[in-house]
Fold these 2 entries.
Entry 1:
Amino acid sequence: MRPQELLAPTASGLRCRLGDFYVDPVRPVERALITHAHSDHARPGHGTVLATQETLDMMRLRYGDNFAGRTQAIRYGETLQLDDVSVSFHPAGHVLGSAQIAMTCNGLRIVASGDYKDAPDPTCTPFEVVSCDVFITEATFGLPVFRHPDAAHEVRKLLDSVRLFPERAHLVGAYSLGKAQRVIALLRAAGHDAPIYLHGAMEPITRYYESRGIALGDLRPVKDMKKAELAGTVTLAPPSATSDLWTRRFPDPVTAFASGWMRIRARARQRGVELPLVISDHADWDGLTATIKATSAGEIWVTHGEEDALVHWCKTQGLAARPLALVGYGEEDEGASTSAEGAA
Amino acid sequence: MNRFAELLDRLSYEPGRNNKLRLITQYFREVPDPDRGYALAALTGALSFKHAKPGLIRELIAARVDPELFALSYDYVGDLSETVALMWPKTSASSSVETLPIPDPSPPRAALAEGGEEVAATPSAPLPPPLRRGEVSGGGPLPDAGQGHNKPPPPTLTEVVTTLATLGKTELPAQLTRWLDELDETGRWALLKLVTGAMRIGVSARLAKTAAAALGDKDPHDVELIWPGLSPPYLELFAWLEGRADKPANRDAAPFRPVMLAHAIETNDFAALDARDFIAEWKWDGIRVQAVSGRDDDGNVIARLYSRTGEDISKSFPDLLPSLHLSGAIDGELLVLREGRVQSFNVLQQRLNRKSVTPKLTKEFPIHLRAYDLLADGEADLRLLPFVERRTRLEAFVAKLDDLRVDLSPVVPFDGWAIITAARADPAAFGAGDDAEAVEGVMLKRRDAVYLPGRPKGQWWKWKRDPHIIDAVLMYAQRGHGKRSSYYSDYTFGVWTEGSDGDQLVPVGKAYFGFTDEELLQIDRFVRRNTTEKFGPVRHVVHEPGQGLVLEVAFEGLQRSTRHKSGVAMRFPRISRLRWDKPPREADRLETLERMLKTDVEASPH
C-alpha cells in the first residue's frame, strides 16, 4: 500500500483513515492520538484521547477534568489494534511522557515522532529508535547552524555567572513543561543544592514531575520572597515573564533563557537576553540527521520548522523526502514570539 | 584571540552603555600591549589591513559544506560571520557523526553526558583527552569538542592582525582556514567579524575611546583630540593613560575631527526650549562634509575633504580642493550650484560614486561648499568655543577665503517658534528664495553649544520638512539582517497601474525601517501566514484588490529610474504606518507618483 493511504495531512492534522484517528490534531476530532502534552500538540475538546499516562495527566492539569470526552492510557511498547491499524507508543526523549507513535498496516510502518531529542535528559525516558518505512520528523532546528552544546556546560555557565554576580538575581526563562524541570535537574547534577525559586506558573507541572519520582531538590515559590533575599539565587520563570514588570521584584536581575534558539545571537539580543543558555528539548542538526539514518526509513516526511534544509539533506542521502506543510505546530515559537508555550 | 572573542561575545549581549564601558575598560586593564591596542583599533575601525571580502568567506564555507544548506542557513541567521562560525565543520569529526549508528534503546550521547556531569561535579580533576561527540568512552568530554589535543594553540589577536597586514592576497584563504580550524565557535565568529571589518556589536568608536580614557581617568574628549595622530597598537596612548608617559601630540596636518550630529526634534520638545537660546539655519539637502586644510612639516598645503564618518573623499572632488587654501577646518554641506542656484539632491547624486571624475562631470555638476561651522582656524582649535563665537570666526574666515566655491549658510532670523514653523513650511518666503527646493528643513543650534563629537543631547536639533506620503501594497518580503535577522523585515511594495488585463500592482520601492518593534512582529506574522509562493529567500505575499496589507510609505523625493519597472525610484523610503483598515484596492496609483515626479523634476534644468 502507499503511505498516503495509511496517513495523510489534512487541515485538522495527520489523519489515519484506516484506523479512524488523527495524530496531534489541531482541531477537535472524534479520536486523537497525542504524542506529548505541549499545547501545540495536545489540544482540548477531542472525543477520545489516546496518550501516555503522563501526557493525559498533564493535559488534565492544564485544561481541567473535561479536556476530552474519554481518555485511554497506553504504555511505551504496548500495541493496540485500532480498526485495521496496529498502533504503539515509544519514548521520544522530548519531555516527560512524550512518545513517538508507530502505525502499522499491511506490513507498512509509519512513525510520527512528534517532537524528539536524542540528547540525554534526566527527567524523561531516553529516545528510542523505531525502524520504519516512513519516518515523520520535526525540523525545529533543521539547519546545520544548530549544533547544541553539552547542556551540562551551559548550566556551568549559569552557575559561573551566579558566582560572579552574587549581588544580582538570576532569572532563567524556561518553558514550563519539560525545560524548567530539566534545567533544575541539571543544576542539581552540577552540585547546586541551594533552594531554586519558581514563578507561580511553573509550580503545577514541576510538582507533577516530582510526583512521578523525579527528584528536583529544594524548590520554593518566589512570591513569598523579599527582594534582597533573592540576591545570588536562581529563579525559573516562563520566558514571557522574564521581560515584564514582574522582574522588578528581583535585585538587578541577569536575564537568562534556556532554549535552542539561543544559538543564534540575534535571537538572544532580540529578546533582551544577557545570558543565553543553549539547552534544547529538540534534536539539533546532527541529532536529526543521525536519527533519520538510524530509523532506516526510505521516505522522510518533514514537519514544523526548517523543512527545506532537512528535505534537501535527505535527498542528498538518496532518501525520498517531502515537507508536510502542516500548520499549527511550533507556530508560536517561530519568529521569536514571546509566547511561553512551544517548548524549544 | 580567545580573550578578545570573549569580550566581543559579552559585548554583543550587553545592552547597557555603562556595562559595555566596564567590560571594555576591564579588558584594557587585564590584557597587555600590544593585544589591547589592536583590540582598540578593531573597535574603532582603525585596523589598516585589507578586509577580506564576504565573497572569500563564502568560498571558504562553500568548499566545506553543501551550498544549498549554507544558503538556507545564511538566510535564517542573517549574518555571514555567525553562519560560517556555527556551520564550520569540526575537522575530521563530521565523518564520525555521519556514520554514527544509534543503538537502541540507549543512544551514545546519554553515556557521554553522564561523563560530562562527572567533570562538572569535580572541576579539579584532571581532564581526560577531549572527545568528539559521537565517541563513547569511560571518561568525559570537554565542553567544546573543537579543541583537539594535538592542535596548535589558537592565534593571539596580535598574531592575527600582524599576519593579515603582511599576508599576500593568495595566502589569505589558506591562513583563514587554518585559524578557523584552530578556534572554537566564539573565536571563529570574532575572527570573521574582524577580518571582514563588520563588527556591528553595538560599540561605537566613541564608546571604545571613552573606555580607554576611563582606564586612565581621562576626559574622553582629550583622547578624541589626540586620536588623529595615533596609530595601532597605541603604545603611547596606553602609556599616557597608565601614567607612564606624557600626552601624545597630534601630528597630522589635516586631520579629521569627529562630527557633531543633531537630534530630530519632536513637537513636544519645543515646550522645554527657549527660542532666544537658539540660532536657526536651513537644513540643506546635500552631503555633510568636513573640509580641512593645513601645512605639513615642509610648508606644503594639505587639503582634504572628509565624509561625516571620516572617510577621505578628496579624490571625488578635486575641483573643490584648490578653494581650501586657508589653514582651518570647515564643517559644511556639499552642494551642486548652477548659476548661483542650489540644485536638488537628485542632481548632486549624479556626481557621486563615479569611478572617474572627468572634466565634463566637474563642468556639468559644479561642486560647492556651504559652510556652517568652523572647528579650527589656523592652529587654533575652536571646538570648545560656544557656537555663536565660532559662527563669528566662520564669517570672518569665509570672507578672508574669498572664494566663489565656498559661502556661508545663512542664518534664518526669528523671534519665536511660530516664525520658524512658518519658515520650515515655506522656506522660499523666509529667505531661501530660489534655493528653497534644496532645503529639507531647519536646523536649530544652541548659541552656547560647544562642538562635541557624536549626538550630544539638546545642543543641535534638526526639524525636517514633512515627507511625501503614499499608500502602497506589500508585495514581497525578505528576512532582514543584523538585529532584525530571522524576521521578515525587508518589504517590496507596489502601487496600482493599468495593465494588459486590468489594474495590476507594480513594485515602486523597498523599505526596511520606519516601523516599531511591535509593528515588525505584526507584519512578520502577516507575511508568514499569507505567503503564496517562495522564490529562494523571497516570500511572495498575497496582494489582491480585496486581500493584502496596505503600507503607508513616507519618502523624501522621487527620481526617474530605468532600473525599476515602474520608472520611478524613491529616496529614503520608510514605513510610516500600517493601514490594516484599508483594502489594497484603495491604495495609490502610479499616476500619483508620476505627478509628483513632474513637480520634482521641474526644479532641475534637465
Entry 2:
Amino acid sequence: MEVLTAVLMLAGGMFCLVAAVGMLRLPDTIIRMHAATKAGSLGAGLMFLALASYYLDLSTTLRAVAAIFFLLITAPVAAHLIGRAAYCTRVRLWDRTRIDELAYTCDWSGPEDGEEEG
Amino acid sequence: MGVESELVRIAGHITLVLLTLAILIAFVRLAIGPDQADRIVALDLISVLIVAYLAVLSIHTGQRAYLDVAIAYALIAFLGTVALARFRERLAKERGGREDTDEEGK
C-alpha cells in the first residue's frame, strides 16, 4: 500500500508539473485553459487518492472522495466561466485557429441590456 | 510526527519539489500574461496546485487536519475564480465589448 501511495503521489506531481509547463508554453488563453483545467484537476485528484490509500480509514477516505467530487464538479464550471469571459472580451486567438464554432454568439447589444443570463 | 515509511517520505519530498516548481512556473504566467483572462486562468491553476500541495503535506506530516484545510481552500478558490471571471465579463460589457481589449494591462 505504501508503494501505491508513493506511485500515486509521484504521478500527481508529474501531472501538476505538466499542467504548469503547458500553462507557460501553449499559445493562447483558450488553449492554456485546456492544460490548466484538465491536467491540474487530474493531478490534484491523484493526490487525494494517494491520501486515501495512505490513511486507509473510513472518514479520511470519505473526505478525500468528497474533495475529488468537489474538484470534478467545480473545475468545468470555473473553466466555462473563464472561457466565456475570455471569448466574449475578444481575447486574441492563436493565428493557426481555423474553426471558430462559437463565432461571436455573445450577445453584445451594448451596455444597456441590463441583466445577463445565468 | 512524521511518516514511518521511508519510501513514502522520499516520494513526498520529490512531490513537494515538483509542486513547488509547478507553482513557480504558473506564477511566471501570472506575471507575464498578456491579457487579464490569462491571469485569471493562472490564478485558477495556482489554487488547484495549492490544494494538491495541501494533500501531499497531509501525507508528509501525518496531520489529517490538512485534508480539511484542502477542502475549505478548494471551496474558497472556486468562489474567487467565479467572482474574477464574472467581474472581467461585466467590465467588458460595460465598455460595450466592441473594442479590442488586448492592449490594456493592469
